[in-house]
Input
Amino acid sequence: MELRHLRYFIAVAEELHFSKAAERLHIAQPPLSQQIQQLEAQLGVELFQRKTKRQVQLTEAGQVFLQEAYQLLAHLEKAIELTQRIGKGEKGQLRIGLTSLVTYDLLPMILRQFREQFPEVELVLQELTTTQQEQALQEHRINVGFAHPPLEDKRLNQECIQQEALIVAMLETHPLAEQECISVRSLINENFIMFPRHLSFGLYDQIVSLCQQGNFSPKVTQEAIQMQTIIGLVSAGMGIAIAPSSLQNLQRAGVVYRAVEEKTPLVETAIVWREEDMTPVLREFLQVVRSVCG
Output
């Protein structure tokens, strides 16, 4: 049984007239009659009672088969539509790895625009460090990541989408908070709150490099994994923190952000993926990222 048999049968069942059905199908009437006869032979039942050579009525079996044929074609059309939409990146799932830093600036704009364009794509977000994202991409647990180079795995594709300077977070009651710009050298005796180097060695090394411009190494007295935790500890008076400038969007009671007087290393944010794992949904997501980030 082929798909055309169902379409021909439905046309005859709705018209109850072979000539009218043939005209509707844009075929000659004799081939249509032959196709219906083939269908009845395959099923082993009569689907139509012939009132005249061309006019017919459905048998009881034909009535049942008509309802089933409707459902089969509806299911097929749904399958075709779903397949086409997935192929165009309009439907599916995208697993995204991200560091906490991108949630304060870039990511909300990207996700908002993507959801407006592709509302039926399911987005699964996982907060992971840069190192964890590299591993998750290798193990196919995420499709794309927002990370901070340098990356250890040189096989990954990456595009820089943002570069930002470093700033200082401190209590508003700190003596240095009265200054608009702070010299790195003035931080020599401060207690630093940082994250462990193994979680994001690129950003960690940039902060250390900035301090070395002032001829000292930071005195790290507290460590935390998440940026919001670090700023929370600053708010508690546990020390100061050097962080990317986008962190200014994270407001905490009693915490102020100040620019650094000297030129700072630029913190790079990149979108990272594996080219061999490209899907239509990922392709559309990358396009949105590029449009938002210019």
